[in-house]
Amino acid sequence: MIYPSQYRLGIAIGLLACLPAHALQLTFAVPNSPPNRLTEMSQALLTEAAHRLGHELRFLPLPQERGLASVDAGTLDGDSLRSTDLDLKSYTRLTRINVVIADDELVAFGVGKVFTPHGLKSIRPFSVASTRIKELEQLGNGYHFTFVATDIQAFEMLRRGRVKLAVFPRSVLCPARKAGYSDLTIQEPALQHLEFVAHLSIRHEKLARQFERTLLDMRRDGSMERIQAPIRRKWANCSAATTPPAFRPVCTDGRDC
User: Fold this and answer.
1) Are 201 and 176 members of one domain?
2) Of 63, 107, 201, 222, which is least surrounded by CB within 10 A?
3) How many CB atoms lie within 10 A of CB 239?
4) Residue 152 lies in a domain
């Protein structure tokens, strides 16, 4: 005969067996840009996947290169958002979580209609402001880039005629308009479609495969779309600010003077 106390003990042991050996507190680098659709979507999906695995995530805003270098060195556990097109061969101690968690398009912004893009290389004749987006850095010589710290600095240069174009993911349009840059025009079509994944330090190789299986389960059971859909709607509702931002002078290298 099985007594109630034995039955309860058996259930408790079974539940414990389903839990990870020990819960981890993982720190992921996140781009130090203003919040946008990409960062919100990637963080929401990774947080849910970690929760299902019994782990906890926190996100640390860092410049792109510093974030990747920190994960490669093992001082951070992971990186939350990188384009699949990036050449990361110099970072030998990263392992990719091979499930796309966000997507966007790289577009050129101008004041009015400037040109009709035909791929990323079609920006070559123009002066361009941007942050250090890897897709741009990998184009090589012969381009006229001014790299700045933030998208707002690039848009200020564009507004004041210092450059002809600013290049960013399409999702940047909403926060830019809310900041008062309502005179920006996206030069259609997009320069390049972008897909984004996360990476873990190589010391978490086994955990990366667990994240992959969990994210694929989330895609199959519909929970990935249930998380993504309201975020898409939120960032699609983009209205301009009623007043322009305060003037901030920009130096020739893009820094605030």
Assistant:
1) no
2) 222
3) 9
4) yes
Specify whether 17 is located in the same domain as 98: yes
Tell me the per-residue pLDDT of 82-138, one tens digit each, with 9 for 90 and over.
999 878 888 999 999 999 999 999 999 999 999 999 999 999 999 999 998 888 988
Residue 143 domain boundaries: 105-192
pLDDT digits (tens, 9 = 90+) for 147-159: 998 889 999 999 9
Taking the whole predicted model, whether its pTM rises above 0.70 is answered as yes
Identify whether residues 19 and 61 lie together within a single domain: yes
- CATH (domain of 85): 3.40.190.10
What is the C-alpha separation between 46 and 226, in angstroms, rounded?
14
